[in-house]
Specification:
Layout (H helix, E strand, L loop, with lengths): L1 E2 L3 E5 L5 H14 L11 H8 L6 E7 L4 E9 L8 E8 L8 H15 L4 E8 L3 H9 L3 E12 L3 E11 L3
Parallel strand pairs: 5-6
Antiparallel strand pairs: 1-2, 2-3, 3-4, 4-5, 6-8, 7-8
């Protein structure tokens, strides 16, 4: 469990879902940072976000129990590609800038390594999400490729999607 004075990170429990959805729904509806349909229904979001071992869904929780952010990791591919994890993170807009995304990523890197994954790959980091790109690079991810105009941002139009990668060293 990752912990600081304001929040801690732990595996999600079924009763965390209302708080997870409260974080996820505005991010999905805004459509600026995730490649999900902006009208994704709650049940579909739960099915897509909730992961089984060796993957995991997890939450950043305030000391008072409020879900501040959430993350998940899972095998990026099946079969011969199942040793590489993929992950995603969402933080409530009221809690941006508190180090929650960094803590969620650190937690997922550690847990993915423990689960036996050899690397982590982000398939679709929106190029215009410069705070996230900077954060992931500061944490050791590198951009392998950028797919030009692969994301239709609702405010600025077509932008690239980065594929980012990091080995999970022993």
């Amino acid at each position: 469990m990752s912990r600081d004075k304001n929040f801690h990170i732990r595996p999600a429990a079924p009763d965390d879902w209302p708080g997870i959805w409260a974080v996820m729904e505005p991010v999905i509806r805004e459509g600026e940072t995730f490649t999900w349909d902006r009208d994704t229904a709650e049940d579909a979001a739960r099915d897509k976000w909730t992961k089984d071992a060796p993957g995991q869904t997890f939450v950043a929780v305030a000391d008072d129990g409020e879900v501040l952010g959430t993350g998940e990791f899972h095998a990026n591919q099946a079969g011969g590609g199942s040793h590489v994890a993929n992950a995603g993170y969402m933080v409530g807009s009221r809690h941006s800038g508190r180090g929650i995304a960094r803590a969620l990523c650190e937690y997922s890197l550690k847990e993915a390594k423990t689960a036996g994954f050899r690397a982590m790959q982000f398939n679709a980091v929106v190029e215009s999400n410069v705070r996230a790109v900077w954060l992931w690079q500061s944490m050791g991810f590198r951009i392998l490729a950028t797919v030009p105009e692969a994301f239709n941002h609702p405010e600025i139009g077509f932008v690239g999607l980065h594929v980012m990668y990091q080995e999970l060293r022993k």
